[in-house]
Amino acid sequence: MPRRNRQRRDARTLGASTGWAQAESADDGDWLVRTVPGSQATKVYRCPGCDHEIRPGVPHVVAWPADETGSVADRRHWHRACWQARRRRRPTRMR
């Protein structure tokens, strides 16, 4: 009898629509975070952590609140280092 593929634990907890994101909890709340490899980064974004541009081809992360009220408009693209350092510094003013 062939084996069945089992869902990974994190995919079940995040739900079917967000199975490609990872859940993170921190002092600033619960977040869904997705890593974007450089090969898939095709647009210019502005990082809320440093207020610098994330150029095409630069790997980064996309984060949004994990609550059910979060929408596409709540997604933010961060440099990896800025996302990891967000607890040590406040986001800068957005342009």
From TrEMBL:
Residue ranges, annotated region (Disordered): 1-21
Protein name from the UniProt record: ATP/GTP-binding protein
Domain of life from the UniProt record: Bacteria
